[in-house]
Design a protein that fits this description.
It contains 9 helices and 12 strands. By secondary structure, it is an alpha/beta fold. Helix 8 packs parallel to helix 9. It is globular and about 55 Å long.
């Protein structure tokens, strides 16, 4: 087995979506540093699409961001599926596999990423499942802080706040964090907390990657995480703060539908690179007379 590829911290990637396949194939070599895919959307795909995927995977590193592992579910972990994911990761020398800190299945798939209750019991449950995933794969994974629109009831247990819950899962699972900056912004507005304070509480040493995306404004106090619009200035500012507080990491621009001209997406990738360059620049030293 060939070792996984590596990603420079100062790198910018784009989601490998079928609607972007032709543009990605035609793009200049320097257009993107890596691509990200959901492995379940590409495992076993052959023909023209499979050949296109293989060609892109030869050009640039591929990271994987899963959609259906359902880490927080009480249903048994699908270890057969996980073994297929592991073979896919090894075949394509994937440097980073991440999943969502959520659940999406019971007797079957629910086709949504649902939040977990912020309790000690949920921390222990999901951390144990993450440890099992890492044991099966023989690698560390990252989990993503998710957007959510209602806090689940916690019964008689004292509730944890969201940041404490995320920190506890990372510590007890001994896994990494995929820090989604747009999700922080969306949740901060929807649940009325300070996004910068949340950002600063995340453990720098565990951050493996950042996601940045656009969202939909349902109302002034209700934002919906859609990945179907351009990144807004407030989210760019939060990404810049993440670089300042936690350091530069590989950063992915998520766009799942409603695709603009490809040049606009490349412009957003350039915006990521610009913020990374600013964060890398040495601090100015005041002149002394």
């Amino acid at each position: 087995m060939r070792p996984a590829l590596s990603l420079p911290n100062a790198s910018a990637g784009l989601g490998l979506r079928r609607g972007l396949l032709s543009a990605l194939q035609a793009a200049d070599e320097a257009a993107f540093d890596f691509l990200e895919c959901a492995p379940e959307n590409w495992i076993g795909v052959g023909g023209r699409l499979g050949a296109a995927f293989e060609a892109l995977a030869e050009r640039r590193p591929i990271t994987c961001h899963g959609l259906s592992l359902s880490l927080g579910s009480v249903a048994p972990l699908d270890e057969t599926f996980l073994a297929r994911v592991g073979r896919f990761l090894d075949r394509h020398r994937v440097p980073l596999y991440s999943e969502h800190l959520s659940w999406c299945s019971d007797d079957g798939h629910l086709y949504d990423l649902l939040p977990l209750p912020f309790t000690e019991e949920a921390v222990e449950h999901v951390a144990a499942r993450i440890r099992r995933v890492q044991d099966i794969l023989g690698r560390r994974i990252a989990v993503e802080n998710v957007s959510y629109y209602a806090a689940l009831p916690v019964g008689t247990q004292p509730p944890l706040d969201e940041a404490t819950f995320v920190e506890a899962v990372l510590e007890r699972a001994d896994c990494d964090l995929l820090l989604d900056v747009n999700n922080i912004h969306v949740n901060a507005i929807n649940h009325r907390y300070d996004p910068v304070a949340f950002l600063r509480r995340m453990p720098s040493a565990r951050i493996a990657c950042y996601h940045v995306a656009g969202h939909y404004d349902e109302a002034e106090d209700l934002k919906v995480d859609t990945h179907g619009a351009a990144v807004i200035p407030d989210v760019w500012c939060l990404l810049a703060e993440a670089y300042r507080v936690h350091g530069i990491r590989p950063t992915l621009l998520e766009r799942d539908f409603n695709f603009p001209p490809f040049e606009e997406l490349l412009g957003e990738l350039d915006a990521i690179r610009d913020l990374q360059r600013v964060a890398q620049a040495p601090a100015a030293v005041p002149a002394h007379g």
